[in-house]
Amino acid sequence: MLVRALTDHERGGWMLLGVVVLLVLVVPVANLVVLESSPFHISTYMVTLLGKYLCYAMLAISLDLVWGYCGILSLGHGAFFALGGYAMGMYLMRQIGNRGVYGNAELPDFMVFLDWDSLPWYWYGFDQFWFAMLMVAVAPGLLAFLFGWLAFRSRVSGVYLSIMTQALTYALMLAFFRNEMGFGGNNGLTDFKEILGANLQSDVTRVVLFVISALSLALTYLLCRFIVTSKLGRVVMAIRDAESRSRFIGYRVEHFQVWIFTVSAVLAGLAGALYVPQVGIINPSEFQPLNSIELVAWVAVGGRGTLFGAALGAAVVNYSKTVLTGALPEVWLFALGSLFVLVTLVMRNGIVGLWRSLMKMRSQRE
Amino acid sequence: MSSDILTAPEPTRERLIDPEGGYILYLEEITVSFDGFRALNELTLYIETGELRCIIGPNGAGKTTMMDVITGKTRPDAGTAFFGQTIDLLSLTEPEIANVGIGRKFQKPTVFENHRVFENLELAMVGDKRVLSTLFQRLTGAERDRIDEVLVITGLSDHRGNLAGSLSHGQKQWLEIGMLLMQNPRMLLVDEPVAGMSRQETEATAELLTSLAGDHSVVVVEHDMEFVRSIARHVTVLHEGAVLAEGPFDEVQSNDKVIEVYLGT
């Protein structure tokens, strides 16, 4: 069964795994071994940028799992990403120790600034890496479980559910903006120094984080692929297509929805946790509704319900964003908007769908 | 409340119900109102174990609403519904009702169009339908054989790998009947099984449903009188949400009240 899960892929899936392997093999060498003067050198800036894309791809796959396969259009998936990021950020804050501006080993700088005299209880344990990693999964997972349990049990679906997820991320954004919440207010958590004793600014640490992100992306894809090709995957797609029919043949629809939603949120949280040490900051703007909507656009552009399409979409859209915001910053939002309209109107199944219909046309001509 | 349900129902109407016979379904004084309109009006109906019963009645008589109540889709305002002696249907959800052994075929065939024919049958198959079990479930040889068998019965063997959405209307009807067979329910509720079927298909359906009765209890809602005549030993006529007449087909057909309702004289 495991062998099947690891080897049963469509061509796009093999390509995704191939790209990941290639990146893992080439990027560390090109950054650390190849001399800077060589045209084959990859700068640390580029390594971090690629690492960011890998986290986005992971996030996109996690959304595709619920949207593409279970028909749950979450417009708040960025919230789970951000929560995972905050859990990692809290660990990194604690690692700063007495090297902060105020030199207080017990309290992060922003708490000293707020005149707090002790660490709030919910920061306890975050100086331990294992505990922080646990929270990376538990915080988004628990929120998704509670939210999903309430929503799916009451049979909230479709556009109503989407609006509620959007409200969820918006509410979290407002909450995290508040200084009294104890998460650094609008500045968020930043100025990180070390992760597990390794200097976050060093090239080697950056490359290691990059490699871990690449491997996590591959594992996320394999896990999701295993899920969607299992019988559970077929049940979930049946629920997407004919919810009440699934009930009448004996499936507890809400259990499946909550399960898949929670798994997806945990994966999104992991992506966020890998993202934060690479970009060096996490702040409430990650909860912005716009982020979650952009995320939906990545999946739609790539082609939903394919997993690898979501990863492709995340890479394509974010690369365009990097290029466009550099060259013509004011154009980006218009470009994103047009892209969304274009995909909705003429490319219902995204790039993957377009490619497939081209292939089909060609094989029919022959 | 439950003590009177534990005993077999008394023969209260024209047809003499054998008091010794086992009953599988007890509907008693079920009332369902939608915005003041009474879709079911104190409906009382019993189904014997292993019988094949046809329910007929004009549009709006409450046939589909009755099925909705039995399968948990609609909650009645009043009344009781028991499956066998102990299972209170009104306290169960749709999937729970499906898992205690009530299978339903809908009026409009609803199959999983984006799944293959084989997968449709696999999904419907009786078994552990909890989340984590389905994640690791693999088909056993016996289960594959069962699916193959049902594919033969429903004449869909050549289509096993096709998407269910690509089937013709009649084939979808058969696929849905096949899904019902995979569930191996103790009672089958079949809503208009021959709508859109050819003469031959209709005959085959009649044969299949007749052969299922005995091991299973079968309740068929149908408009096609020829079809009803060909399969039914007993017929129940619903009108305005209650039982108008019940008995052998010929007797019911010559019943004055039934003629009045159907012909509007």
Give a quick set of tags describing it.
heterodimer; A: 366 residues; mainly alpha; 15 helices; B: 265 residues; alpha/beta; Rossmann fold; 6-stranded mixed beta sheet; 11 helices; 10 strands; globular
Describe the structure.
The complex is a heterodimer of chains A (366) and B (265). With 366 residues, chain A is an all-alpha fold. Chain A has one domain (2-288). Chain A is 71% helix and 2% strand. Chain A contains 15 helices and four strands. Chain A has helices at residues 2-7, 11-33, 44-67, 77-96, 109-113, 129-153, 158-177, 203-229, 231-241, 243-248, 253-279, 289-302, 308-327, 332-346, 350-365; strands spanning 189-190, 194-195, 198-199, 281-282. In chain A, strands 1-4 form a two-stranded antiparallel ribbon. In chain A, strands 2-3 form a two-stranded antiparallel ribbon. In chain A, helix 8 runs antiparallel to helix 11 (253-279), helix 9 (231-241) crosses helix 11 and helix 12 packs across helix 14. The longest helix of chain A is centred in the middle third of the chain and has 27 residues, at 203-229. In chain B, a hairpin with a 3-residue loop joins strand 4 (78-83) and strand 5 (87-88). Chain B has a six-stranded mixed β-sheet, sandwiched between helices. A four-stranded antiparallel β-sheet of chain B has the order 2-1-4-5, with helices on one face. In chain B, helix 6 (141-153) runs antiparallel to helix 7 (169-183). Chain B is globular and about 55 Å long. Chain B has one domain (3-8, 21-263): Rossmann fold (3-Layer(aba) Sandwich), CATH 3.40.50.300. Helix content of chain B is 36%, strand content 24%. Chain B contains eleven helices and ten strands. The chains are: A mainly alpha (366), B alpha/beta (265). Chains A and B meet through helix 9, helix 10 and helix 11 of A and helix 3, helix 4 and helix 5 of B.
